[in-house]
Amino acid sequence: KQEVTQIPAALSVPEGENLVLNCSFTDSAIYNLQWFRQDPGKGLTSLLLIQSSQREQTSGRLNASLDKSSGRSTLYIAASQPGDSATYLCAVCPSGQGSRLTFGEGTQLTVNP
Amino acid sequence: EAQVTQNPRYLITVTGKKLTVTCSQNMNHEYMSWYRQDPGLGLRQIYYSMNVEVTDKGDVPEGYKVSRKEKRNFPLILESPSPNQTSLYFCASSQGPAGGWYFGPGTRLTVT
What we know:
With 113 residues, chain A is mainly β. Chain A is built from no helices and 11 strands. Chain A is globular, with a radius of gyration of 13 Å.
């Protein structure tokens, strides 16, 4: 059974710092991996989607990498801002189960002014 | 604008009173799914659908029903809600395994 783990569970940084969020998954047989952002009590906003054949994706200050063989992904946030404060969720779409996502518990990020 | 909509956004009800949470997507996606989110348990899949009239159970289907009569709509039905179904519910859609998933804004349900 696919399991997804995110470390750390919570992170507090000063504004302007570059930071890395980690995601690991137990089964490398995946279609893709998706990073989401969730503000308190709100919906999930998709940040980046990495297909299993890709190594990384970039959007603005965000860069996500994927190492499928080791079961790891990282989300790099450059020059963090208070508006980046949110919970970041990692989810994998297992091969053969394209109808579902398996989520990690998330990393709660606080960026202090 | 491409989006997944859910209604209602907030709902307080009593045990046993049937309710329906609607979900609609305007992206012509084949796949749709319902999740619930609970503190300490994360997001868990309730039901999913890969096409019209094709639905199947996820990880926590007990107490829920779904239907997919039209491609764009995927309502979640609680025929006899109980307090343990108090949760934040999300509907999502996708064009398929290689596509990303789009999530609705969520429905916060409280059952007393």
